[in-house]
Amino acid sequence: MSLGLNYGLGPGLDIVDRGETLCSVAMLSEETTVFENLHDHPCDLINPFLVKQLYLGFYAGHALRTAAGYPIGVLCIIGHEPRTFSEAESELLARLATVVMACSTCACTCCNSPPGTSCCGRPSTPAPKAW
Prior knowledge:
- InterPro entries: GAF, GAF-like_dom_sf.
- By secondary structure, this protein is an alpha+beta fold.
- It is built from three helices and five strands, in the order ββαβαββα.
- It has a domain of 83 residues: 2-Layer Sandwich (Beta-Lactamase).
- It is globular.
């Protein structure tokens, strides 16, 4: 299975096998996954080729999980330079992942709701009239 990566990556790097990514490692954890210095301390769970090709020095990711607990993706931060990542930043990334999933769940619910029904606890609004 191949998945698209973050916006802004060069040609040939925008789609890679998930098993080659740091996000695949993050999906295994309930906690935020952090690699503060990938240059000196690479991840042993994946092939380091992609990390070296992207010249990644830093990675932090938190799994996006369904209400049933299934991981469906990762909200991550990457950088070329190694850096520290505080506990407060880790907690913020986890909260942002929760917000992403809440918005995603709401959008899916709204898209599947019959016309005229409420969506995500808000009353439906009529569609604008065509001119």
